[in-house]
């Protein structure tokens, strides 16, 4: 049994305590029992839920592994992480899904809900064995990291996954439009003489995928499409319109697309290379508006660690990806606490991703699973990548002063992180 004392619930000034027993929340303000942890006046919330992280197991453990990635997630306040299947080999085999879940369960960090590949080898042609992957514990299907060029295969996948009650997430970029672009196409890419990736690559792909869903929906097929790391204003307008028509389409936005723009590439530093690319301030402003009006469903980080040597390569050769699961909440809270408000930010990182997945809404009521985070909303601290649990000990926000740092993360009633 654990009792966490000296904490406040969101919107309340009352100091309370919560007691946890057998993995569940036993109750509030009971006699303080068991091990006592001082919450130091922090704010308690359900543990964050991440729908998009690259943990690199199996096969790419020089970048990250389950232990470093899930420890990093817990340090970021996350209780649950959906890992991406673009590993080596690809997670397209039920045995791999089972191994990942078993391995993660023994670590004591964030809980793992692995996504499985939609197609065999993520090659985009032949569907993976979705039924068996679901049985093994796959949380969703996605070929993330690659784009679903074969529309017919995606359509079949949406039908099959829909009949299983599963979400398909898509990395929405048209490969032929994206071509060899390494950053957003626009005045900055032109000034730098770098190959651009146009907004139309994303918007055109989102339009195609929405049309596929619309056709299935009209036939009564329960397809569910989730657009990952949506980055452009035009793609968001398409999702907004699809929702207005009642189509089962959701989308996520990443904090890096809200806080960085293509101007950052003037440094020629590949730390800013990400797919889809950093866009313009107008895009970022539009995405923020989408978070406010509800047309964006949730936040996700797309934590995508690579080795320092890989990210120190030339922009043309470096792999895409930004890793920052440990600072996503402080970044959102520091930058947008005033505009969005604490409650909306927390919703976007807890209940909202649960809604996208069709999972029960996380709450802190007695009897519920004890997955919670204590956040210090006041102490300002500089981002120090040397302290990261992630193997990627570098980040665009190094040295920046942020507040809202998690001080304690509890997963399944056990301490998964304590600062
Ligand atoms: O920037 C990205 N990195 N985008 C992706 O879709 C894949 C990811 C990765 O695996 O590194
Ligand atoms: Zn992606």
TrEMBL record:
Residue spans crossing the bilayer: none
Mind listing the GO biological process terms from this record? 'de novo' UMP biosynthetic process; purine nucleobase catabolic process
Keywords for this protein: Hydrolase, Metal-binding, Pyrimidine biosynthesis, Zinc
* Binding residue positions for Zn(2+) 1: 52, 54, 144, 302
Extract the Gene3D superfamilies matched here. Metal-dependent hydrolases, Urease, subunit C, domain 1
InterPro entries tied to this protein: DHOase, DHOase/Allantoinase_Hydrolase, DHOase_cat, Dihydroorotase_CS, Metal-dep_hydrolase_composite, Metal_Hydrolase
At which positions is Zn(2+) 2 bound? 144, 171, 229
The cofactor note from the UniProt entry for this protein is:
Binds 2 Zn(2+) ions per subunit.
- Is Zinc tagged as a keyword? yes
Q: In which pathway does it act?
A: Pyrimidine metabolism; UMP biosynthesis via de novo pathway; (S)-dihydroorotate from bicarbonate: step 3/3
Q: One cellular component GO annotation, for this chain's record?
A: cytoplasm
| Molecular-function GO terms, alphabetical | allantoinase activity; dihydroorotase activity; zinc ion binding
What Pfam family is a match for this entry?
DHOase
Q: Where is the active site?
A: 302
Which EC numbers characterise this protein's activity in its record?
3.5.2.3
UniProt binding sites for substrate: 54-56, 86, 306
Catalytic reaction list: (S)-dihydroorotate + H2O = N-carbamoyl-L-aspartate + H(+)
Ranges where the Dihydroorotase catalytic domain occurs: 44-213
Tell me the cofactors it needs: Zn(2+)
- Kindly give the PANTHER family that the UniProt entry links to this protein: ALLANTOINASE
**What does the protein in this record do?**
Catalyzes the reversible cyclization of carbamoyl aspartate to dihydroorotate.
What's this protein's family per the entry?
Belongs to the metallo-dependent hydrolases superfamily. DHOase family. Class I DHOase subfamily.
Q: Which HAMAP family match?
A: PyrC_classI_B
Name of the protein in its database record = Dihydroorotase
Which organism is this protein's natural source?
A: Deinococcus soli (ex Cha et al. 2016)
